[in-house]
Amino acid sequence: MFSKACEYAIRALLFVAQKSKDGSKVGIKEIAKGIDSPEHFIAKILQDLSRKGLVLSQKGPSGGFYLDDSTLNISLADVVRTVDGDSIFSGCALGLKQCSETKPCPLHHEFKRIRDDISEMLQTAKLGEFNALLEKNKLFLKR
């Protein structure tokens, strides 16, 4: 459903949210290990997300990535749009360019309901809301 970059972005931001809730900063090596991702790939993703304001970073020996109150409130939909664009929220199930209410593809009406449900779920899910369940090992970010 999401690109590999988007999957890693979501997992990394949820990991950073959990690890930086006390003001700590998290390094690339710890993030890569914590979400089971290639270090160089997650570094590139996080640098891009930092430039776009979805995660904060600080350089130096005590630096790393972190989230504050405003970035903890970012929705998963914002992450998906930033990394993958908005096709998951508006695209045709069959990839047609002209699919619409007036000229629907065979899957249009059912897929629109599913797409709307996914959109609602991602829009209401905020980065900071999963911390407690991750800490209690009720949710996992690693295979």
Compact summary:
This protein is mainly α. It is built from eight helices and two strands, in the order H-H-H-E-E-H-H-H-H-H. Helix 1 (4-19) packs across helix 2 and helix 1 packs antiparallel against helix 5.
Describe it for me?
With 143 residues, this protein is mainly alpha-helical. The chain has one domain: Orthogonal Bundle (Arc Repressor Mutant, subunit A). Helix content is 53%, strand content 4%. Strands 1-2 form a two-stranded antiparallel ribbon. A hairpin with a 5-residue loop joins strand 1 and strand 2. The longest helix is centred in the last third of the chain and has 17 residues. The mean pLDDT is 94.
